[in-house]
Amino acid sequence: MNTQEQLTRYVANFVDELSKSGLTDVVISPGSRSTPLAMMFAEHPQIKEWIVLDERSAAFFGLGLAKQTKRPVALLCSSGTAVANYFPAVVEAHQSRVPLIVLTADRPHELRDVGAPQAIDQIKLFGDYVKNFHEMALPEGTVEMLNYVRTRAARSVSEALSGNPGPIHLNFPFREPLTPDLNLENIWGEPLREPYHIWHEGKKRLPEDFLNYFAEKLSIARRGLIVCGPQVDEELAEGITMLAETLGVPVLADPLSQIRTGSHSTKNIIEGYDAILRNEVIRASIKPDYILRFGAMPVSKAYLFYLKENQDVTQYVIEPHAGFREPVGNPTEFIQADPVLFCSDLLEVSPTLLSEENDWLTKWKSYNDIAKSHLTKTSDNTLTEGEAVKQLVDVIPHNSSLYVGNSMAVRDVDTFLMTSSKKLTILANRGANGIDGMVSSGVGAAASGQPVTLLLGDLSFFHDMNGLLAAKQYKLNITILVVNNNGGGIFSFLPQAANEKHFEALFGTPLNIDFKKAVEMYDGNYHQPKTIHELKKALQLSYGELGLSVVEVKTDRTENLIWHRGLWRDIEEDILKLVEQ
Question: What DSSP element (H or E) covers 379?
């Protein structure tokens, strides 16, 4: 067996085992050293290859696709700084628990640390941001080595998915020549009925004696609160809402909780909790006996203040696997159990903890009614940032995904997304909360074939405009709503805004860019509505257009600040009247 055949069979067996283990998509950024893997992925009949030139964009594209499909996606790049460009997306995948299989080509060992071109130290480059790192052996074609690569391929898929999902890094050293022989017979190895390794993972559930003990504790402390932060399990909504109605407690549902929309009951959901909790007196009037949290910490900063002021309140955090997500530092009991099973098991041992509405729940609902009356109020035809989000939520198609950018975008969705029977999957990169890679993430989600709308600000759009290339290249259908306030609008809400001398240069950062020209460069459809009516029409048109559609709403940062603060003030004043009664 010559060197080329050894290389070919080694790489082909690896790629084939990824497919047998369930991998369906790979995002490739072309380069020379990665040639063996790139050609084999392109050749494999069961794996779809997505070619994204810029590695940073490619990694976020893969992240968005993995978030949308809840399946591992492979990333492949050449050696050198190409690998380093994956870092932001790998960090986000780790923080937000997204399965990625990062495959990096490398120089062979004799060309490392000797001044060879395009060579950097790639060993454990991503540190603790990957669940596992493995330096692959140099290609050989022996039976033992082909078994080895199949084991590693199967194991990488399993490790990416098991426990808390996350990224895996495999580093491949290749010697030249790098071109595989695609004409070899039986190139994918001996046909196997099953994957080389099969893993079975059960779901954690609690014993009945603990459930009885826990149900008793909850029945004694009647002023309970269920909080659901960002999470992606669509089956959890039914369990949480049924548990809340049994306990007679409100549910503070983050916009990324997958609970505000859908066919499940929403009568105990408090959508306006961020507006409600902005006032210290109001927060003090609704102090709970306990907090039961599912998912990550909510987006709301007002909820963070609420926690800090109630450190003596018993808090329970339900985690499906080991993990520590309690940034406030409050005393907490962590319960490791599958959240869906936890809800159903708790209901089974105590199906009638509380069967009627109580004063505690009534108070929360009355506050929420006041907040919603203001948040849903029909304004004049002025197109504010909040109105942009309200109109988007109103016209976005049923059974579609909304991918939300960070900074003001996700906060406005938190404020203005009301409960609805419309089925929406709401995604965001809230692991590290960065604005980088948002366009690529949204386009990657659209690569799943599901309808996707991306909502983001002008800085996030500018930061990742080259992500639009994949939408053009693959004719992906995606609507992007860009709220353009010519800079970093969220900083207007922060103390930095008081320093007028340096604010615009350091924080406001106006771009003064004509995005229409950029959209046209990528063959996209472009709309710039000026009124609420025009916005709704533009969005409706965009969902009928093929390929990329960008709807740009121009707003003023100062006016936006005044509008938001006025809205929160009106809510606060009306709720305080109830508090003082």
Answer: none
| DSSP conformation class of 75 | E
Q: Are residues 449 and 351 in the same domain?
A: no
- The Cα–Cα gap between 217 and 172 comes to 54
| 213: Cα within 13 Å, side-chain hemisphere | 5
Locate tokens 């916005």: which residue?
535
Q: Is there a single domain that holds both residue 46 and residue 138?
A: yes
Residue 316: count of CB within 10 angstroms of its CB = 18
Other beta carbons less than 10 A from residue 355's beta carbon:
9
**Single-letter amino acid code for the residue at 40:** M
pTM of the model: 0.94
Residues 88, 465: Cα–Cα separation, whole Å: 16
- 187 found inside a domain: no
Enclosing domain of residue 25 = 3-173
How do strand 290-294 and strand 224-228 relate by DSSP bridges? parallel
Averaged pLDDT, 447-455: 97
Task: With residue 310 as reference, give the H or E element that holds it.
Answer: none
Q: Among 326-340, 353-367, 498-512, whose mean pLDDT is lowest?
A: 498-512
Return d(Cα 130, Cα 95) in angstroms, integer: 10
H helices within 297-358, ranges in order?
301-308, 339-349
| CATH code (residue 115) | 3.40.50.970
Which DSSP string corresponds to 502-513? HHIIIII-----
Query: What does the pLDDT read at residue 99?
Result: 98
